[in-house]
Specification:
361 residues; mainly alpha; Serine Threonine Protein Phosphatase 5, Tetratricopeptide repeat; 2 domains; two-stranded antiparallel sheet; 18 helices; 5% strand; disordered N terminus
């Protein structure tokens, strides 16, 4: 039989990955407990805080360490202990993730530090411990400027947030925003100039906050508000010419759009297709998070779609400062007014199908 260590198996790694590891506790002849208590017990019994999981293809490439796994939820005290027992604060790991991809599909991201991962999970107590016990390899300023292989700083990871196919917040739902805001403020207190730092794709932290939270933006509004208060550029454009208003124009996030408009987001910015945010709103995609039961059972009702679109378009049109944006043509020669009419025709057809489907049940 191949020994566990040669099969890249580390009991302490398993402890970090799971909130409860009954099997490990059984082996230790003790009671079930949460991960942190288990980790302390394992450390007490001689487990190594230096453990690392390396790639089978390249042993020099580190995939995970005890610290990189624990930082998602570890307390200040546990992070301090791991570092004291040899965990490398500045270790760089490789991850295959979908977090930052606009389309479905994974990307391989290298040079990910524990600070990136702690920021992602909004573990600001753990992040503070990383700063306080960093050793002499790097200053705090150098830590917040350390980018992954795609040019993303810890601030980008914090703004993106741990809600995706690979990562999940280790926090109660009602604490996510507070912890994220505190993490963002902590990072920006060290280097305020990172507020508009762009990664290799040209995205800043505000872009990630808006794009990742947009389907539930109302609940997370304090995150982009905090970034805007620190001077985030609201008119940054991506490779397709989209600004943050383009991202939100076809949602129901009216308060978010108002906040962005107050901070100078421009209604006149066009993407590569010649669309203004008003064109986007006229195309009529409406997320269903406010109509969860209706969406799950029968789809979003027509009147709800129309109400949401009318309100968003009204706010955007009023923000045009007298410009005739409703009649401005995009690259296809279509105006928001024409697109809205096309959308309403499509919606009426969808409503007939929705009602027919309900009757057939």
């Amino acid at each position: 039989m191949i020994p566990l260590e040669k099969r890249q198996f580390r009991l302490l790694n398993v402890a970090c990955l799971n909130a409860r590891v009954d099997t490990a506790l059984f082996l230790l002849d003790t009671r079930p407990a949460r991960a942190e208590e288990l980790m302390n017990q394992l450390l007490n019994r001689g487990a190594s805080a230096r453990d690392a999981l390396t790639s089978l293809l390249d042993e020099k490439q580190i995939l995970d360490t005890v610290l990189s796994l624990a930082i998602s939820r570890a307390s200040y005290g546990l992070v301090k202990r791991l570092i004291a027992e040899g965990a490398d604060v500045h270790v760089k790991t490789m991850h295959q993730i979908e977090l930052f991809s606009r389309q479905s599909g994974e990307e391989i991201v290298q040079d990910v530090t524990p600070l990136h991962l702690g920021s992602l999970h909004a573990n600001f107590h753990g992040v503070q411990a990383l700063f306080d016990h960093r050793g002499d390899k790097a200053t705090v300023a150098e830590m917040v400027l350390a980018s992954d292989s795609a040019g993303r700083l810890p601030l980008h990871w914090a703004a993106r947030g741990a809600h995706g196919p690979e990562y999940h917040y280790m926090l109660p739902q009602n604490e996510i925003v507070t912890h994220t805001v505190n993490t963002v403020k902590l990072l920006l207190s060290i280097d305020p100039d990172t507020i508009n730092a762009r990664d290799h794709k040209g995205y800043n932290a505000l872009w990630y906050a808006v794009s990742s939270f947009r389907e539930g933006f109302d609940q997370h509004l304090n995150i982009p508000k905090t970034l805007l208060e620190y001077g985030a550029e609201a008119n940054m454009r991506d490779q397709d010419g989209l600004n943050v208003l383009h991202l939100l124009a076809f949602t129901q996030n009216v308060e978010a759009v108002r906040a962005l408009l107050r901070c100078g987001a421009s209604m006149s910015v066009k993407n590569l297709k010649g669309d203004t945010p008003l064109h986007q709103a006229a195309k009529g995609k409406v997320f269903g998070y406010r109509y969860e039961l209706a969406t799950e059972r029968n789809g979003i009702p027509l009147d709800a779609k129309i109400t949401a679109q009318d309100l968003m378009m009204k706010i955007l049109e009023e923000a045009g400062d007298g410009l005739d944006l409703m009649n401005e043509k995009n690259a296809d020669g279509k105006t928001p007014r024409q697109l809205q009419q096309e959308t309403r025709i499509k919606w009426h057809q969808e409503e007939q199908k929705r009602l027919s489907h309900m009757q057939d049940r």
